[in-house]
Backbone:
């Protein structure tokens, strides 16, 4: 446990980090931009142009969230500083444990805000579209997809992100063969892009009556959701459109109409589908946005050098291609093969506490 004098010294050193964070966030410029957008949104004809209105309000919301996060850090610092000062002045060590706990929580939040400030790539601030695919392992792999979907949903809840299922194909007995979902929130893509790759599970299968240990695989794709005014153009002649009946919940309407849509981008072979909306038109628009997002993300990363680059380098969803391993037996361990970060608290990880792995990836990316 840190003593009050130690905490005072640490807080003195941290004050400079907070100043640097404020500089990285361009607070003055951000504040000016917020005032400018608020003035625009108050104009009489602001609501006449739907697309411009939506984009303005979205940008305004993102900037306000950035300022609010910084203000929260400053308030936490000031509250902790006042608590330490009270302990020293009153010589009251009964509050020391509380101060230590607050200090550790503050440090974690500060580190996260520092990483967030460095998420400045073109798509980092965007929403994210995640797609999980079952790989080698059959029924066990399909159940693994369901477990990962739950893990990411739990993580998103803790971050205040909204999750919207776009498309899924249920497994034969459990889980999913694949599932796509939208994660909405500030820096969703920036935080989640490092999760892209093959995830490996080792456990005693509940589907094996002999109680044998099984190894299963699932892959995760992560792409940014593009705005309506995206510069990616797709010719209608390059799209193959298939319609089919939705397989999810929705009552009689879902069962009687072919509202689900699958789009195939013929030049690249990229496929996207959506069955979440009741309208075939809405599902088509979402699927088209998914294809545009995939093309834009790969364009930024590979610059369309080869068709293989456009489609993305998809490794086989099996041995030797995993980015992370989750071992339940004979010991419990989650190990990231990209960063080397690992944790033995596998229950917490499967309940969505994956921020430490995300932070490890971002720190490694910054160093590189």
Residues:
């Amino acid at each position: 446990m840190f003593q009050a004098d130690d905490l005072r010294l640490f807080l003195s050193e941290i004050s400079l980090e907070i100043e640097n964070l404020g500089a990285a966030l361009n607070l003055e410029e951000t504040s000016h931009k917020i005032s400018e957008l608020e003035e625009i949104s108050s104009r009489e004809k602001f609501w006449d142009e739907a697309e411009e209105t939506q984009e303005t309000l979205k940008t305004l919301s993102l900037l306000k969230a950035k300022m609010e996060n910084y203000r929260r850090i400053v308030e936490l610092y000031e509250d902790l500083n006042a608590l330490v000062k009270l302990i020293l002045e009153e010589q009251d060590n009964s509050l020391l444990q509380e101060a230590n706990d607050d200090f550790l929580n503050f440090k974690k939040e500060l580190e996260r805000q520092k990483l967030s400030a460095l998420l400045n790539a073109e798509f980092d601030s965007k929403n994210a579209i995640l797609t999980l695919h079952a790989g080698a392992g059959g029924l066990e792999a399909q159940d693994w997809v369901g477990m990962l979907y739950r893990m990411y949903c739990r993580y998103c809840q803790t971050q205040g992100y909204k999750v919207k299922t776009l498309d899924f194909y249920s497994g034969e007995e459990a889980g999913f063969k694949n599932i796509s979902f939208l994660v909405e929130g500030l820096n969703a893509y920036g935080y989640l892009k490092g999760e892209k790759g093959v995830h490996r599970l080792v456990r005693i299968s509940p589907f094996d009556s002999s109680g044998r240990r099984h190894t299963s695989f699932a892959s995760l794709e992560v792409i940014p959701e593009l705005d309506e005014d995206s510069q990616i153009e797709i010719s209608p002649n390059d799209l193959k459109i298939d319609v089919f009946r939705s397989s999810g919940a929705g009552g009689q309407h879902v069962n009687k109409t072919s509202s689900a849509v699958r789009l195939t981008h013929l030049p690249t072979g990229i496929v996207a589908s959506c069955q979440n909306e009741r309208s075939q038109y809405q599902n088509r628009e979402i699927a088209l946005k998914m294809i545009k997002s995939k093309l834009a993300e790969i364009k930024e990363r590979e610059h369309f050098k080869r068709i293989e680059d456009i489609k993305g380098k998809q490794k086989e969803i099996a041995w030797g291609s995993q980015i992370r391993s989750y071992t339940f037996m004979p010991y419990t361990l989650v190990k990231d093969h990209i960063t080397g970060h690992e944790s033995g608290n596998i229950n917490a990880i499967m309940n969505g506490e994956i921020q430490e792995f995300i932070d490890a990836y971002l720190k490694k990316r910054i160093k590189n």
